C-alpha cells in the first residue's frame, strides 16, 4: 500500500471514529462515570468488538451478512434490543445506591458490555465490507494489506474513543452532586436508546 492510499485510509478512519453512535456514547459515559483510567475497560471492550467485526469481514463472513437480509435483521434486532436494555438500565438507576453500584461495576463486566455493543451492530460489518476493498491493491498480497488496514482502523478508533472518554472525564467534577449524576445517567440512557433507534432504521 502506497503512502497516498494509506493517508486516504487514515482520514477515512478518523471520520468513521468521530461519527456519533453507540460506541461514542458508551465511551463518554465511561469517562463520566469512571474517569479516564477507569474507562480503559470500556475502551478495550469497544476495540475487541471492533476487531471481531474486522476479522469477520476479513475472512469473508461479512459478505454473507451483506447479502443475507434475514441474518442482517436477526443481528440488527439483537443489537437494538441490547442497546435499549442498557439504556433502560441507566434510566432505572434513580437511587444513590444504584449509582454507587454502577460506579463500582467490575471492569470485566464493563469490557463485555462494551464489546457486545460493537459486535451487535451489523451495519458496522456491512460498512466495513464496502470500505475495506477500496484500499486493497489486488496486484499485491492481501494479507499484509488487511493487517495494515485493520491496525489503522483499530488504532485510530482507540485514540478517538480514549479522547471521548478523556473529554467526558474532564467534566466529571460537575457531576458530583447526586442530582447531576442522575441526569448524567439519564442522558447516557437516552443516548443509547437513540442509538438503538438509529440502528433499527438500518437496512441493506
UniProtKB/TrEMBL annotation:
<keyword id="KW-0732">Signal</keyword>
<comment type="similarity">
    <text>Belongs to the Rht family.</text>
</comment>
<feature type="transmembrane region" description="Helical">
    <location>
        <begin position="48"/>
        <end position="67"/>
    </location>
</feature>
<dbReference type="InterPro" id="IPR001123">
    <property type="entry name" value="LeuE-type"/>
</dbReference>
<feature type="transmembrane region" description="Helical">
    <location>
        <begin position="74"/>
        <end position="91"/>
    </location>
</feature>
<protein>
    <submittedName>
        <fullName>LysE family transporter</fullName>
    </submittedName>
</protein>
<feature type="transmembrane region" description="Helical">
    <location>
        <begin position="144"/>
        <end position="167"/>
    </location>
</feature>
<keyword id="KW-1133">Transmembrane helix</keyword>
<feature type="transmembrane region" description="Helical">
    <location>
        <begin position="111"/>
        <end position="132"/>
    </location>
</feature>
<keyword id="KW-1003">Cell membrane</keyword>
<keyword id="KW-0472">Membrane</keyword>
<dbReference type="Pfam" id="PF01810">
    <property type="entry name" value="LysE"/>
</dbReference>
<feature type="signal peptide">
    <location>
        <begin position="1"/>
        <end position="24"/>
    </location>
</feature>
<keyword id="KW-0812">Transmembrane</keyword>
<feature type="transmembrane region" description="Helical">
    <location>
        <begin position="187"/>
        <end position="203"/>
    </location>
</feature>
Amino acid at each position: 500500500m502506497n503512502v497516498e492510499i494509506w493517508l486516504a485510509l487514515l482520514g477515512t478512519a478518523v471520520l468513521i471514529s468521530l461519527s456519533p453512535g453507540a460506541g461514542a456514547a458508551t465511551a463518554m459515559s465511561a469517562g463520566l462515570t469512571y474517569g479516564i483510567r477507569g474507562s480503559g475497560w470500556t475502551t478495550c471492550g469497544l476495540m475487541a468488538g471492533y476487531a471481531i467485526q474486522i476479522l469477520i469481514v476479513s475472512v469473508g463472513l461479512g459478505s454473507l451478512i451483506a447479502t443475507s437480509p434475514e441474518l442482517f435483521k436477526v443481528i440488527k434486532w439483537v443489537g437494538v434490543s441490547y442497546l435499549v436494555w442498557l439504556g433502560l438500565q441507566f434510566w432505572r438507576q434513580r437511587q444513590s445506591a444504584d449509582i454507587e453500584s454502577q460506579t463500582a461495576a467490575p471492569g470485566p463486566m464493563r469490557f463485555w458490555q462494551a464489546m457486545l455493543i460493537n459486535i451487535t451492530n451489523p451495519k458496522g460489518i456491512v460498512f466495513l465490507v464496502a470500505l475495506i476493498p477500496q484500499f486493497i491493491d489486488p496486484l499485491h498480497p492481501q494479507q499484509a494489506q488487511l493487517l495494515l488496514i485493520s491496525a489503522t482502523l483499530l488504532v485510530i478508533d482507540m485514540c478517538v474513543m480514549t479522547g471521548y472518554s478523556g473529554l467526558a472525564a474532564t467534566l466529571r467534577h460537575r457531576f458530583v452532586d447526586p442530582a447531576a449524576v442522575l441526569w448524567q445517567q439519564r442522558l447516557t440512557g437516552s443516548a443509547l436508546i437513540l442509538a438503538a433507534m438509529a440502528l433499527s432504521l438500518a437496512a441493506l
